[in-house]
Design a protein that fits this description.
Blueprint: H1 2-10, H2 29-36, E1 55-56, E2 62-66, H3 71-76, H4 83-95, E3 102-106, E4 113-114, E5 123-124, H5 129-146, E6 150-154, H6 156-163, H7 169-172, E7 177-181, E8 184-191, H8 194-199, H9 203-221
Parallel strand pairs: 2-3, 2-6, 6-8
Antiparallel strand pairs: 1-3, 4-5, 7-8
Helix pairs in contact: 4-9
Length: about 220
């Protein structure tokens, strides 16, 4: 029994797969961001450059939730600053939503990637449901503070993190959903992740689809 207790006490915090011990109670967004920089709630922190926390006004009416940081976001420490982020800003503006008045974040705060060889380009790897669940307390804290009128769900992974493993973006994109998210009633509009537009064979058509979905979100906010 003593040996078992010793092993348990020596276990790394990331083995528990929850960020909850790292989330300070009663904190504002600035304090949350500083605390998140030291999160060890799952093993993803080991390889990532840094935590990438949400960004934007604390009084935003709309919160945009993506999957996880990409390569550029991981290097800069800010969400949606790479090519997908620039495309998202353009799509928001075309849909009638001011990007500067939104709060943007990700379901997972560390970049998960793989490399074919050392020093080769880091290739995005989708987080597991366990990793998304581990990071859930950060997203719950952001939602509680920002209290957005609407969540725009960007892609399948963000949808699974918020709505469960059965979520399929193709089935509900561009519709208004009403669900309880982290203990509070919430309206959501799912759409594709902007990175999928960049990968699409028909990029213009995919972009029009994204803007169409975001116009549904804009209508909710009017």
């Amino acid at each position: 029994m003593a040996t078992t207790k010793a092993k348990a006490s020596a276990a790394a915090p990331e083995d528990a797969y929850t960020a909850e011990p790292f989330v300070p109670a009663g904190a504002g967004l600035g304090e949350l961001r500083r605390a998140a920089a030291h999160c060890r709630g799952c093993p993803l922190h080991r390889d990532a450059t840094q935590t990438v926390f949400g960004e934007g006004t604390g009084r935003a009416r709309v919160m945009l939730v993506g999957e996880q940081p990409g390569d550029q976001e991981d290097r800069q420490g800010r969400p949606f600053v790479g090519p997908a982020g620039r495309l998202l800003d353009r799509a928001l503006a075309d849909a009638g939503i001011d990007p500067g008045e939104a709060y943007v974040t990700n379901a997972v705060k560390h970049f998960k990637f793989t490399r074919s060889e050392p020093r080769k380009r880091r290739v995005h790897k989708a987080p597991t449901l366990r990793e998304m669940t581990a990071c859930g307390p950060w997203l719950a804290a952001e939602l509680a503070l920002v209290e957005p009128e609407l969540i725009v769900v960007l892609g399948a992974t963000a949808g699974k993190a918020l709505l469960g493993s059965s979520f399929r973006v193709t089935e509900v994109r561009g519709t208004v959903l009403e669900r309880e998210i982290h203990g509070r009633p919430q309206r959501l509009v799912p759409t594709v992740h902007p990175s999928s537009v960049l990968r699409a064979d028909d990029r213009e058509g995919a972009y029009r689809g994204l803007v169409s979905d975001l116009k549904v979100a804009a209508a909710v906010l009017t």
